Structure formats: structure tokens, C-alpha cells
Write the C-alpha cells for this entry.
Amino acid sequence: MLSRRPLAAALRLAPLSPPLLLFLASSSSSASCSPAASSPRGCSALRMDTAAVEAASTGAIWSTPSAEPRSISIGKQIFCNRSLNMRNITAVGFDMDYTLAQYKPETFEALAYNGTIEKLVKDLNYPEELLTWQFDWKYMVRGLVLDKKRGNILKMDRHKYVKVAYHGFREMSKEEKVAAYGSTLIRDSFDEPDYALIDTLFSLGEAYLFAQLVDFMDSNPGKVPSGTDYALMYRDVRSAVDLCHRDGTLKRMVAKEPGRYINEDLAIVPMLEMLRKSGRSTFLVTNSLWDYTDVVMNYLCGPYISDLGSSHKQKWLEYFDVVITGSSKPSFFHDDNRTGLFEVEPHSGKLLNADLQASKIGSPRSSQHQPKPIHKVYQGGNVGHLHRLLSIASSSQILYVGDHIYGDILRSKKVLGWRTMLVIPELEQEVKLLSESKSTRKELRQLRMERDSVEDRIHRLEWSLQFENLAENEKEKLLTEHANLLQKLKGIRCLLRDAQLQHHQKFHKVWGQLMKTGYQNSRFAHQVERFACLYCSQVTNFGLYSPNKYYRPSEDYMPHEFDVLGL
């Protein structure tokens, strides 16, 4: 048995917060995928390919002159959960990682994955054979839940019923799922500390590695550090991920070759300029520190030539009134957070004491004739500091755009009452597949209706046979009809199961549709609906609409309305 190095010796740092399928699928996916016997690597090429979505924007936005009105493709549209009149918004804020900066999963996530394994081996005494493991960046999806104690990966619906479950890469049977999650008198909350929520793209690599380690430990219990269980193994993975972020491993590689790890989007600068020309303040709040933020934003905004006329390196700062780095979201969103606010000197990176009185930019509407200061870069602080810097009278005047349902959206909406927009890159491919599946969904609905009708006839016959006084020949007739209906029901269920599976695998061979689990909205979709006023596939979709647009939600429907209205 290998000995375990004390965690404190390998990680002398505080934990760091890392910067809709089953539309009609049965409660247990039969699309199992077993890892190779020699290595716990799982399935390959299953997550929807983000490279299959539309090519990078050419930079054309709503305000770009055009002879004809532009149509917006379904994958580029903004979807609305709650009415939002942009005329009431005076400041628009953005997260950076996976919001303005869309990382390439095949390179960036693989970089983080490989770095994490190196830390596990070198700092936490895991066996060197882990260094030969491969990362399948398409396997995991957002919205999953890791059961740290049992080593399971779960997908559940909005009612927190587990519909798809894997132990490592082995699909759990219906009986196993019921035994673990369906036999308690009190519903499990599926929250920390016993569970980990995979609600950001940064977490996909660690989820995949956790599944690999579960399979590895089950097959080789003597090869992991002594005393390790599933929960401790997950903690080690998180510690290794934190080390990668803390020691600058990822930052150095991205800074050296940003184009290898970040997607180019030529519409970012035109979008930001359009917002500022419309009279709104813009700000950036990111957990990344200044040196890394500057590298990423220079790459995203550098190639664009605008009419603002500046040649200095930090040209991108001209598109923001306030930039806050090292914000430590989600704690940033609590006004009672006592973290100090420092001003960052952009060229040297020096931290200076912040003078909020001198830094206030004033109301973006009342002070349009006053020049707005630029290069106002800060580190730390809290939301109260930001409100004072922006001279915000009401939190509902702010729209914040982010990718993290917990770190960006839930807290800013629930605690502050900010208006929110969630960026979901996977959505672009998902809505395209949904659009192509209209006829399949009709067929599935027809099969379900036919199944229900046959079941009702069977129940009626069974009632008559049990409780009614029937002549012998009449009874024989009903028994024959009952047997025929049972056979018919079996055939319908078989057709339905196969059609459901095919629909399931169109989105993802294991986890399926992002926003659905079975017939219900997934837990992830439920959170999007509750906390995101708007959601879309890319932050620059925002530039395809008028900055004064009134976003309105579609009509809600109750189940009884579908049949009454023929929906």
C-alpha cells in the first residue's frame, strides 16, 4: 500500500473557486460505455462537438449598416425567462472566463486535466501510471452531480429524482439507483458537502478524472494512497486542480499561445462599443488576477481596429468603465464581505490603495458630458464597492452576463436582484438538434398516447374480469382480448423505447439533452429558469439585438393546457 502524504504538506493554500437527452428517454439509459480493461478512460467522442457550431462571428452586429433586416439563426438567439426592458439598464457587466473568453475544450480542458494528474502523482503520491491516462473532453456535460461518498455521477430532473447514474463509467441498474437514492423518507438535497455540482465548464475535466479514479480504485485498491476512499479521492482532485491554478501552470501556457486555447470572436469589441455608445456603463468582474486578465483580454480585443484611436498595450480597457480582478465570486456579491479593494496600476501590476471618491464615474445618463475615466482597474473588494464606483441607485439597473450558474448567476440574482444573462455555449448545437427533431417528437408523443390508450383498455378488462359476473363464454372472450392487448402493449413499449433511445443518443450517447432528464426539465434547466433572466449560447449574441430591446418571455403552459389548446 502506498502511504498518503499529508494534504497540508502538498497544498499549503486555501481552496480556490475555479475561475437540456433525455427529452423522452427511459429512466435508465441503455447506452452504456465501458472503459478499456487496461485503462479507466471511459467513452470517447460523446459530448456534443462545440467545433460543429457556427464559425466565429465576422464582427457584424445589430448597429452595423445593412440594406435588409437581418434574421438571427436559432442558435444565436437570446431566450427570455423574465421580462427585461434594456431601457431600464444603466450598466452591463461581464465575467471573463467562459463568457467573454470561450476556451477550446480540446486544448484548454486537456491542459488542466494533464496538469491535475501531474499534481496528483508528484504532490499527492498517486501512482505514475496515471500519467498515461487520456482525457475525453466530450464525455462529461454540465448539470451533472458527483456523489463523493459513493463514487457515482448522476443526472437528475428538476424534482431531484435521479434518472441516469453511473458508478465511474459503469451504468447503474434501476435497482441500484433505487437502493441508493429512491428509498429514503426524506429527499436528499444533493448539495455540498456530500455532493459536487458540475455547473461550470471548468469542472468537466475534474469530473472525468474522478470517474477514472473510481474505476481505477475499484480495480486496483492497493495502488491508491492508504486510507483513500471516494470522498477523499475527490478532495485530492480538487486540491490538485487548485494547485494548477495557484502555481501559474495554466496561466503560463495560455499566455504563451492564447490562440491555441481561446476561440477568437470578432464581435466582442463592436458589441462593447455599441453598448457604450448607447449610454451605458460597462464593467468586468472576474476571479482571474490582473496579469492573466490582461493577457486574455488583449487577445480578445487586440486584433480589432476601432475609431477610439489608441496604440497602448491595454487598449481593451477603453471598452470598460470599471475592471475588477481577483474578485473571489461568489463571496464578492455579499455586501458584508470585508475584502479590501485595491487599485491596480495596469502597466506595472502594482496594487495601490483605492480612492473610491476620486474613482466614481457617476451616472452614465446624467454625466454624459463628463469624460469617463479609463484604466480603472481594481482587485478584490465587494459588490458595495462596485455600486459606488458605478453610482448605481438600484441593483435592478445592472445586467450581469456570466457562465457559472452558481458563481455568476444565482448569487447576483438571489442576493442582489441584479438582472442576469447566462451564457451556455452548448445551447447552440442543442437547439439545432431540437429543431431537426420536430417530427421525431411528434411520433414519440403519438406512441405515448397509443400506449396510454391500450393500458386503459387493459385496466378496464381486468376490472371486469375481477368484479363483474360474466358468463363463461364472455369471460373467455375478454381473456383473449386481454392477452392480445398485452401483446400489443409490449410491441408499443418496444417501439417507444427504441425511439426514445435514438432521440436520446442524438444529443449525447450517455447524458443526452442538456435541458431535459426523462420527460422533465433537468436540474440544470430548472436553475436556468429560476435565476437567469436571459440565456444564450454566446455573449456576442447580445450584439445582434438592439441595446434598447424589450425582452419578453414566451407564454407559460400548464399540463392541462397542452391538450385543451392542442399544443
About this structure: The CA atoms of residues 285 and 324 lie 5 Å apart. Confidence is low (pLDDT under 50) at residues 3-56, 304-311, 363-374. The longest strand covers residues 162-167.
